[in-house]
Each structure stands twice: as C-alpha cells, then as structure tokens.
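Note to self: keep these together.
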Amino acid sequence: MSGTGGGREAQLKHTGLRPGWTTGACATAATTAAYTALLTGDFPDPVTITLPKGQTPSFALTAEALTADSAMAAVVKDAGDDPDVTHGAVVRSTVRRLPPGSGVVFRAGDGVGTVTLPGLPLEVGEPAINPVPRRMMREHAAAVAAAHGTTPDVEVTISIDDGAEIARSTWNPRIGILGGLSVLGTTGIVVPYSCSAWIDSIRRGVDVARAGGLAHVAGCTGSTSERTVREVYDLPDIALLDMGDFAGAVLKYVRRHPVDRLTLCGGFAKLSKLAAGHLDLHSARSQVDKGFLAALAREGGASAPLASEIAAANTGLAALRLAEAAAVPLGDLVAARARDEALTVLRGAPVTVDAICIDRAGTVVGRSAPKGP
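Structure:
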C-alpha cells in the first residue's frame, strides 16, 4: 500500500529533499571494489551494491591502490540534503588476504573509532563499525568471493579521512567511542533532516491515514521500529508515520486530528527521553537522563546500589541491561511513562495510546498496555 500516498516512502518524497548514503553503505561499496580488485586486478568503477531494502546504488571511486596482498578503494560520502557532519568525507576500505578459514575480520583504520565503554551494540575493544554495516560488508565479500571460486578470508580495515577531527563534533567521545567516527546505518540511506519539511510530512501521513479510514496508526522513530511495529500489529504502510525525533509533532497533530489508536515505537533511549518529558528526541536537543532511569528503576523494585549503577551507566542501553540482569522491568516502566507523557500532550483527545521500546536489533524490550483519556 506504499503507493497510496502515505507511509515512510511517501513522507520522504513529500519533503522534496534528496536522500544520501550512510557511512556503512560507503564502506560496503569501497570494500566491494577493493576485494574485487584484489581477486581480479581491476577495480569496478562505479561499484554497485545492494542495500538491505533492495536498492542498488552505484558509487564512483575517488582513490584506489593495489599490491600483491591488499587493495584499497575509497568513495566520497554524499549525505544528500541532510546536514550530516560526515558529508563529503572520504571513506576508505583496505582489504588484505588472510589464511583460509579466517573469515572476514574488521579493523579500525585512521579516523574510525574504537569502543571503550560497555552499553553499545559492540564489545569493548571492537572497531566502531556497527552490526548492519558489518553484515553488509560480509555479504558483499561473500558474493565477490563466490563469483571467483573462493571464500572470503580477508581483513577489512575501514578508514575515514579526518575522521578523528570530525568525531569531535559528534557524541562519540561522550559514549566511549575514541579515535574517530562510527560506521553507521541500518538501511544504507540517509534520510534528510528538515524540521519544517519533516513535520509537514508527518501531518500529511496522519491525513492520509485518516482519509483511508484507518483507526490505528503508529509513530516510529526509524526503519527498525517501523519493522517491529508492523510485525506486532500487521499494520499497512499508510498507517506507519516516520516521526523520527519529532514525537511532539505527531502528538500535537493527532490531538487536533484524532485517530482511535496511536502506537509509539522507538529505541529504548529515545522513548526514555519522551518518558522524561522531552518532545524533541534528537541527540542535539535532548539527552538520556540516567538519573531519571535510576528513579524509575527504584519504582520497579531496584535496590539502591543497582539504581546507583544505572545512574552511572554509559548509555541508556547499558542502563537497561543492568536492570534486565536484576529482573527489574525498566523497559516496561519507560514504555508506560512514555505512553502517559503522550496522553498528557494529547490533552484528553479521544485517542488510545500504547508504547513499545526496542533495542538496536528491533527486539521488544519494553511495552505498555493501551490507555485512553
């Protein structure tokens, strides 16, 4: 039903903004080109990759180098119309042969950070190359290897020119990613950010859902939460609102243009911000309040020492894991408080609300019961 004028895809089209490519997509393209050259002696230029949702963008190479045991390819990141600090950055992949059976091993080159604190989806000491980009690079390396009758036993070193300097403008140092940037992306596509355009697209999405007679819509913070809420409720595409960080925009518009049921679905950290009363969930304008999470955990039965650990946690996810290990339902508590904050903003509008918290993999880690005015 995505062609009917609603949903995430229609919202993006309505903004009139040009999407771009994530660092993960760029790293995958560079890796694919470098590994192909290592096996064949020739760099594909442009190099085409397949993104998680099936798109097949092509990337021009900006640099290449080949030796007997390694190959390097680089692409320039194009973030589209998004004001991304990494727009224009040169992402390099150096692929080096390893002994048979080694598989694909990732290394952080210059400008790519290393994880130094727990609470992220990577182990301490690992290069800050997130799980989905790793999977994309492994899959593309496997495809290149299979096409040439071999197995992908290689070391992949990702570098980003001036990445350490660029990282100073991000939250990486604060969450323990040191030495450079993270290689990110769950879809490979950078959704352009524009407050006015995106909020307008949210309103359009609500209007389309109401015109289609839908009684249940869902505000999702991104593609992973969108996938989760679709699985939970089997909603059509036009019921899915890509609210991004604009929880307040969804709630205020639904207050004036009610639907019977509204589900809010997002990462635990983002929904914890809503639970604490923030309506703009962007990292530049609101932060996870671990003291608030500690107090909420105490309400859920956490001991004073555990609450202190939660208050000192590195990230919201780390706080959640501490609570889970002690069987304290912090995810459910956050979901319930987020639902209640949403109802406060709705000011008695005839809308029943529930909230779902997920982790980075899309696993439900907290859920509230539906509640109306």
